[in-house]
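Weekly puzzle thread! Below is a chain. First person to post its structure in token form gets bragging rights.
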Amino acid sequence: MEESADGSLISGVSGEGWPCPRIASAPTSGLSHAADNLVSAIGLLLCLHRQGLQRLVLCPGSRSAPLALAAGGLADRGLLTLTTAIDERSAAFHALGMAAASGRAAAVITTSGTAVANLLPAAVEADRSALPLLLLTADRPQRLKNCGANQTVNQEDFLRPVCRSFTTGPLGGLHQLSPAELDSLATAAWEQTLLHPGPVHLNLPFEEPLHPSLDDQRQAWSGWDVAAFQQHQLSRPSHAAALPPLDALDWSRPGVVVAGPWRGLETDQPAYQQALKAVAECTGWPVLADPLAAIPAGLPNLIRHWELLLPNGLPVADAGLQVLRLGPLPASRRLESWLTSLGSGQLLISEGEPRCLDPLGLSQQCCIGLAAWWNAISEAARFSPASSLALLTAWIQADAQVQRVLDQQLPAAGGVTEPALMKALPELLPEGLPLMLAASSPVRDWQTFAAADLGARRCFSFRGASGIDGTLSLALGLARIQGPTVLICGDLALQHDSNGWLLASEASSPLLVLLIDNAGGGIFAQLPIASPSPACFDQLFAMPQGLDPLALAAAHAVPARQLTRLEDLQSALEWGLAQQRTALLRVCTDRSADAELRRQLREITAAALQSSRGGTTEA
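Winning reply:
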């Protein structure tokens, strides 16, 4: 940054693509010229765009005015896709949904103060799910800190514990950075979102005045060579990681592959899917896959109903089973118990995640990703798929038996129960239509009763921290990127993020919200919670709200319908998808009756499996 004769800073110093110097020195008070702030904000966002930033969610504020004007100008020029949101919590989750679908960070801009604190829930989920998210927060300059100035807080510390990196701009204001320094700031932040994907926080002090005149805005925008900021091809920085011992698994013995929720970038999926298919084909090992595992269509050796087969429905080889685990564990206590019974020596491969993903403490973890690991070991390995043939055949037969039980017990007719609804949906949803499952009951029920759908579509659920925060905003973010999408969620999850409806404009991509309204937190009815009375249980755990979700949708101009019988499910889905915008389809269920139905289905399945084995139970 150059200096004027009196020592004050002059913004807009020449650099590649930058305007020539033209703005006078700062006022004698030491405050920046408002246009200086705008030029710096434009420069920062252009540098981020050059690195790969495409989408930005803007929240209202005064301290963030330079960033808002810059974002609006770049959107007008077709360089950024801009979404506005008045609720910072909803905005951050919306950006996270876009990041999950696209494989690249979306940015969120907020003003100072409590606005920054509202970003924390989404930052936590981004951290635990290893999803890139760029948080740009405006702040007061240092001279206003720790002196009682309005809307001035220690926001530098709010997000730091969960962020991959935290950087603050010059304490005197962003206008003090040269073009080269702004470019370095943007480049470093963007690379951090990709190196180990997660949230990155740029805290940006802005000195006053903040609001340039129209003449100053025109001057600030003049002279930019936008072509010099042509976007780079998105590439993930390489990181070194040690290969595991090549003899970590004995390929001459039977084993099992457990594919947990996909925790990597969407851009890395094709190589992962190709490697997973090769593993299954070469080893002959059965595959137990979470619905979130992003498995390829036509994956061989797939055991779909493992959740109902465990813990006693899967025969184990005499010599024990080897275990190859991919990513974090599925949300299944039965699977955890079964894996524990198989003992240590398991191999866990993560997609670049260096943190431990094994709460069972049974595995050696390799973080280079399945594709890189497979490429490193497959040539020298000597596979023996015949050694697993008997085991695989027995598991496939047991899997088919479970499907027959479900076909008999859960016809797509009559009143709606949650298990029957989940079983019916895979046959009625269009092939390949993406699906988001709310954390809690929906993701578990889909895993248990919609297992026939494995590999048929991309399923999302934000299980990093497993909260219900931001459910609707996340789903709308997914739909903005991938087009028509279905969200399955419960009533509390939807009400918890009711501000997400504000993002559901007619211009947004189609999202069909399938609301399972069981008058409270249905997951609690499935837990062994002793309560003196149903009223006490509702007050302390289920917490029904008595809100009419159809009226709430109508208040946001969202079309909505109610479904009462499973025979009408197909036509209701067709109606919702035909809206070509956000729509709500509500079904009401009985959480207590459905909890009992789930228990009965497990008993019936276990009895059928025992009968098919001649009355004995396999350990």
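Puzzle host: Confirmed. Bonus trivia for everyone else. The first strand starts at residue 2 and ends at 3.
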